[in-house]
Amino acid sequence: MSTHQQLLYHIVFSVKDRRPLLQDDALLAQVWSYMAGIAKNLEGFAIKIGGFYDHAHVLVRIPAKIAVADFVGALKSNSSRQVNDARAGKLKFHWQDGYGAFTVSPSQADRVVRYIQNQLTHHAKQTFQDEYLALLAKHEIEFDPARVWE
Description:
Layout: E1 8-14, H1 25-41, E2 45-52, E3 55-61, H2 68-86, E4 100-104, H3 109-117, H4 119-122, H5 128-138
Antiparallel strand pairs: 1-3, 1-4, 2-3
Helix pairs in contact: 1-2
């Protein structure tokens, strides 16, 4: 029998120090598009990528042969390089070291897509920090409040 899988993840990470360095709409669109290409090169599939000026949300199918940490590491390092190349000579861009990875049932994928699509509206009412803490709570992930933002 062959192997069948459907591994969907909602991955969230912020710009280092949560600085709003992605305020240029053209750059933002370019970063999301580039991330989709990175996912494809890793044999994954980006269902939806979006976010806000200081963070990214990625709903992605990750192949089982790649560890989530390796996938996210490649996504962040390659997209950072692309941002720095696009912003030649400007302030150095980095994503934060950590990330959140939350499994998503295929039956909930459309809901997560809508959530990612509505980030600009959503963040008119809620900060990234509050959003991220709510995601951790919703997914019952224990964390050290003193270290969550390192």
